[in-house]
Amino acid sequence: MPQPSLPLPPSYLPAPSLRRRMACWLYEGLLLFAVVFVGGLLLSSFGVFTGHPLSRSLMQMVWLLVLGVYFVWFWSQGQTLAMKTWHITVVDKTGRPLTRVRALTRYALSWLWVLPPLAVTAPLKLPMSEIAVLTLGWAAVWALLSRFHPERQFLHDILAGTRLVDAPKAPRATSSV
Q1: Domain that holds residue 141
Q2: pLDDT at position 72 over 90
Q3: Could you tell me the pTM of the whole model?
């Protein structure tokens, strides 16, 4: 009978470099922008054709739910498409795969990347360009804070009891000619 996997100490779960994690974050953003853009066109077209366009707040709730399902599903499997590309895996603090509840907790806490600057700037009625600069500045500070953590983890991962670790690279297929 196989033994259950024992939790690994953090020293055996090295964090990927901040550069790789941020590259993965940007790639994930590009992929999701495309999904949201195409999905938004479809939802908007459906609303126009039926004569009942969706309100902005309803569209935002739909996307919050869709993104939540996307991330919870893939994180509970270990990786999103961007994470596979950059050889990064998300696990719990003992090195085990995430449960859906822990993945949902991580999803909720990951909004700390963007919600604080949006909440602060909303009543100020700033132009979108200034909101974008402030939000990107906040994300940069948020990312750099991981440099001060002994295991190089992001704050939302610490709070969620998760961690990003290097994923083993799949062996390349070699052809014998």
Answers
A1: 13-166
A2: yes
A3: 0.82
